[in-house]
């Protein structure tokens, strides 16, 4: 539903996005992650036709994207924020933005979108009196009111309080369940871990990791094994069939072994004379994965 193929963008001599490729299918909530300046916003702008790639293609629902492309009517977008007219009410601003689509008022999902925005009577007040969070929620309402098949949201949780973040998460999950493809950028890794089904991680404009969240976190194939001799255990496991990765960390051995049950690991170790104290599932946090694939670059979400 959303695809980037060889997407590249330069600003002067700086290459903001380099040969980026990924896809988001219907039913997926994909989080686009990366340290500050990694190229997330530049990528999203190209995906919705707000800027032209220097190379590569952006497609939505199998159609190439460009400024004013028809397919964009089916996309809910929150990037940089729409320019609300400050002396008009929230509702009048929504009407104005909707008028640009050439379709009759009201939009198909207006009530749900307003519900999520939770502005209540304030939707009738002038936007210039809105707080940052209220403006952000009005922006979300404009992205969601069209009942989009595709959502592309740049840091949608910015300025929202925890209850609002949760409501947003639930709504995005609901939209994905009903067949939408959702791409969100975020710095809030703990939040992303609860929301995303897939992740794409960028660093310095390039793709550094992508795939289903479960797989990237280790899934069922990763184990943490406590033994009496980590060096020997690591050597034995590296020679064991099905084992694809072995690392020693904090006095334990982390093993990835697709298709091998914990019993198999214990047998291999005990058979080689290594004492096994415990074997547990070793899923990593998204923060650990993020810091590993971005070489620990500053990430303000790590707070
Ligand atoms: N219009 C522009 N002109 C010049 N340089 C730009 C422009 N937009 C972005 N850049 C540069 O391109 C790089 C990628 O920026 P981008 O905003 O896409 O990153 P980001 O991952 O969204 O960052 P953040 O998480 O801080 O929002 C940065 O080095 C940025 O300074």
**How many β-strand stretches?**
14
What is the subunit organization of this protein? single chain
Q: Average pLDDT across residues?
A: 89
Count of individual domains: 2
Helix/sheet category: alpha/beta
CATH classification class of the largest domain: Alpha Beta
Task: Describe this structure as you would to a colleague.
The protein contains ten helices and 14 strands. With 303 residues, it is an alpha/beta fold. The chain has two domains: 2-216, Rossmann fold; 219-283, Alpha-Beta Plaits. Helix 3 (110-117) packs antiparallel against helix 4 (132-144). The protein starts with a strand and ends in a 10-residue tail after the last helix. The structure holds adenosine-5'-triphosphate. Residues 11, 14, 16, 34, 36-42 line the site of adenosine-5'-triphosphate (ATP). Residues 2-229 form the ABC transporter domain. InterPro entries: AAA+_ATPase (IPR003593), ABC_transporter-like_ATP-bd (IPR003439), P-loop_NTPase (IPR027417). Pfam families: ABC_tran.
